[in-house]
Backbone:
């Protein structure tokens, strides 16, 4: 185990702030991701909060502002558990960088996606206890980790619309896979917003504010937005581009590994697909000829409405260099776009183009 008790073969994009993803094979075929393999995405130093001193403020457009300790959260609200996949908006950015460089952004592979069983209380219950007012349209989250990547430098934050905040799957969590929520994943408490980009699942949560407008935090107002290809990201200001929230349909091949040397003949191909928000994966196709013809993979149902779905197929791998391609369809009938070139954007978010790997068969 290396830093933050992660597996030794984590792909560490940055030590400080810590940004790391597991090798794709570590995610293959597992409904939930072990804590040692779960990706970690940070914008600043990881805070060390004393759980006894920690308090959560709930304020803004509420009739009864609250200040809650962990003991109060645990004792005064009904406990809830949700199995949910987190996916970073920068997941699979490497595919966009292959089209055109994206300076200053990490080349995440498909491993900025992981699934855990989260335990805590429903955000909706806390908002109802506080007396959420009808004028509230957004629920903002604040954390103490200060990021120098923001302009100006500021603590991390973000928001979600009230309709999402009131969903039963949105939790204030203190446990992950049945263990205390590790510090690196937001302990003592984080919000988990299933089906939305990971950026909204704010870690080390200290304040929830009900308000009319979305958060003006840098990571909501300026970052995590899809800018037009010709835009200069350094000059982007609040409100520019498309704000990311609900995740787009995506899939990735997890095994075999990119560049693997395999025996020709029947070969098992597996991966994940994630429909995003309240959609489901309806079909996954796999091709050995760049998409001229496809074979349907078996898709598992997932652990619940908020998780990825693993898929599997066995195909007859020919001798030589083989490109394996996968694409998913969702329950609305939408399919993934073919090319990352059509999706390229200056910050490298939301690459959901077809997944491709190259292997060599002998
Ligand atoms: N919360 C805080 N306070 N600071 C952060 O840097 N990163 C966000 C989100 N919550 C972040 C945060 C992003 S972009 C993602 S993808 C997820 O946390 C990653 O969660 P993880 O590190 O537990 O995998």
Residues:
């Amino acid at each position: 185990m290396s830093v933050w008790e992660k597996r030794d073969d984590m792909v560490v994009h940055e030590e400080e702030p810590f940004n790391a993803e597991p090798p794709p094979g570590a995610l293959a075929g597992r409904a939930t991701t072990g804590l040692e393999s779960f990706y970690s995405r940070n914008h600043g130093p990881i805070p060390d909060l004393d759980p006894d001193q920690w308090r959560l403020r709930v304020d803004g457009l509420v009739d009864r502002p609250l200040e809650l300790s962990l003991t109060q959260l645990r004792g005064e609200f009904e406990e809830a558990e949700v199995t949910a996949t987190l996916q970073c908006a920068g997941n699979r950015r490497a595919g966009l960088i292959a089209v055109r460089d994206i300076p200053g952004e990490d080349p995440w592979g498909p491993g900025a996606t992981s699934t855990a069983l989260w335990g805590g209380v429903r955000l909706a219950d806390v908002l109802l206890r506080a007396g959420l007012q009808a004028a509230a349209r957004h629920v903002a989250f604040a954390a103490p980790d200060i990021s120098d990547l923001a302009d100006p430098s500021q603590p991390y934050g973000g928001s979600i619309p009230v309709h999402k905040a009131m969903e039963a799957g949105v939790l204030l969590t203190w446990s992950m896979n049945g263990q205390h929520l590790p510090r690196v994943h937001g302990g003592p408490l984080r919000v988990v917003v299933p089906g939305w980009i990971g950026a909204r699942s704010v870690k080390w949560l200290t304040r929830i504010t009900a308000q009319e407008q979305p958060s003006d935090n840098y990571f909501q107002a300026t970052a995590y937005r899809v800018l037009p290809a010709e835009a200069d990201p350094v000059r982007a200001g609040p409100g520019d581009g498309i704000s990311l929230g609900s995740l787009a349909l995506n899939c990735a091949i997890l095994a075999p590994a990119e560049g693997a040397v395999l025996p020709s003949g029947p070969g098992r191909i597996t991966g994940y697909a994630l429909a995003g928000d309240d959609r489901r994966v309806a079909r996954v196709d796999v091709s050995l000829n760049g998409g001229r013809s496809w074979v349907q993979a078996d898709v598992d149902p997932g652990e619940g409405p908020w998780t990825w779905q693993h898929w599997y197929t066995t195909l007859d791998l020919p001798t030589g260099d083989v490109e394996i391609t996968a694409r998913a369809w969702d329950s609305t009938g939408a399919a993934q776009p073919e090319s990352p070139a059509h999706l390229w954007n200056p910050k490298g978010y939301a690459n959901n183009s077809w997944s491709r790997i190259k292997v060599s068969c002998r």
